[in-house]
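Hello forum,

I keep getting stuck at the same step: I have a sequence, I want structure tokens, and every attempt I make locally crashes halfway through. Rather than fight my setup again tonight, could one of you with a working pipeline run this one for me? It's a single chain of 461 residues.
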Amino acid sequence: MTVHEKPAQLSLRDWDDRYLELKAQGFQEPEYGGPLSRHLDDGDLRLQKLRFDNSPESLRLWNFLLTEEERLKAAKKAGHKLVGTMKDLGTIPVLAYAFPNMTAFYPDGAWWIPCVMELSAGLLDVADALGFDESFCPVRAMLGAFVTGAHFPIPDHLICSVGATCDDFSAIAQRLAGLGYPIQWWEIPHRRQPGPGEKSVVLPGGIMATETQVSLILDQLQDIRKALGNLAGIRLTDEMLYQGIQAANRIRHVLESLRGLVFTAPLCPMPALEILIAEMLAIHFCSDRNESMVVLQALESRVQQRISANEGYFGKEAVRVFWVNPVADLTAMNVLEDCGGRICGTEYLFTHALDPIPEDLDPMEALARTALADPMIGSIRERAERIIVDIEKFGSEAVIVSRIPGASHCAFEGEIIASEVGKKCNIPVLECEVPPVCDGIEISLKTRISALIETALHRRE
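Reply #2:
Ran it on my machine without issues. Output:
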């Protein structure tokens, strides 16, 4: 059944009442469903501070996100091989899910645990004891998750990309290997523009790169394909991989539609938090590719319904903000909306997981090109150019670049992106740092975002 109610953001306590109303109306939910507040028993204390969209589709999205550990345990019990794929953000899972008996996930996702559990899990303390203090990116929480074994099953195989990626992550992964967790390494080169006489290729997103770099990645992906085949006990055919690419692309197409609808609608049809979580599903499908598709299609349908009914949030006067980099503390999304803004454009470090994978190429070369399109491995100005194109596409009026504390790739890129965007788009830009729990700086953050919003409003006059 379709349950309709005007859009509203609810607290966790309000959602308990809303949930009872939905059940009384005959609302059917998946096996991982239930009231959002039940996740407090798992230690997800930050939920008490967030505000959530009131649609049944939002409830399904959040329950899907917050039950990933249960799915991983169930997959392992069912005989699936678990693959922990680290740092490439969107490429290796496509390869892994082409096997019928394999489930891939990102241990990197532990970087949000300090936020969601409000530092109560002690993962950062474990990382500190292993030599990775707060001068490192919050992804150091991954070390604590492996050591405690409390947040995901230990994978049967670990794969990690290094090279032109985050130095912090490379160091943390090396420490993990030193603790006795075997890792299959592969190198991503720094993407560069082809020189005179060099053969070039076009990557997803329209970026140019050299043919030799694609070949370098292709050779390494072949090694990974072989290792996964040995793990699964199954030979992966090109047809199986092609079908896996098609399945991933179907999810990417739904996300492209969802983002376009939300970012361009006169009234915001879905708040920033839900869209942030929805985008993250593209990276590894939250450990269930089929259900990920169902969740996203349901969310898209709700958004379309609201746009048709001219329903939404924040009024048409809300300032259209483009957000760069994922936030370490999810409450920052609610703060933006409190200050009079709405999200109309995002770049959360994984545009290559949103762009369609080429289907007219050899499937392995298509994956190699996708990996090389990673925004983090090229020049910062190249990344800024992609952001500028999207700002113009979505009509964004202001930009927020949120730095991730301690992250080596955030040291100067935020300043360069802010400078390039401000200069070429002639719109106000705020660069700020968002820690894993930003309660101590919330007033300051609100003040700075409010100033950005006021500047954008003034420019309308």
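The longest strand covers residues 157-163. If your local run keeps crashing, start a new thread with the error log.
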